């Protein structure tokens, strides 16, 4: 039996590249003073870890590195906590292996 060594998701994500569309992010977080439960969930469920709490305890998104999986769209777009759209042509994630 041939057993392949395990590889972490983070290591595989490292091979992807992201072409940033300066000034036109495809994900925006609605202005808020206290994050909703949906925004707080994004801190844990985003596979690329694009969501963080800033010094003011507000959720921010860093779109460079986003793999455009749609997890945040499913969780927080219906509540209006984020705005999500596809990146303009030629921008966004560039998958190395498929």
TrEMBL record:
Residues 57-87 form the 4Fe-4S ferredoxin-type domain. To ferredoxins from P.putida and C.tartarivorum, ferredoxin I from A.vinelandii, ferredoxin II from D.desulfuricans. Could be a 3Fe-4S cluster-containing protein. This is Ferredoxin-like protein. Keywords: Electron transport, Iron, Iron-sulfur, Metal-binding, Nitrogen fixation, Transport. It comes from Bradyrhizobium septentrionale. The keyword Metal-binding applies. SUPFAM superfamilies: 4Fe-4S ferredoxins.
């Amino acid at each position: 039996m041939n057993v392949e060594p395990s590889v972490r998701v983070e290591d595989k994500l490292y091979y992807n590249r992201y072409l940033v569309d300066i000034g036109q992010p495809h994900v925006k977080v609605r202005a808020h003073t206290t994050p909703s439960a949906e925004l707080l969930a994004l801190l844990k469920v985003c596979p690329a870890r694009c969501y963080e709490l800033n010094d003011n305890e507000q959720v921010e998104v860093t779109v460079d590195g986003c793999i455009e999986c749609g997890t945040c769209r499913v969780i927080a777009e219906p509540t209006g906590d984020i705005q999500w759209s596809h990146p303009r042509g030629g921008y966004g994630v560039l998958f190395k292996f498929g």
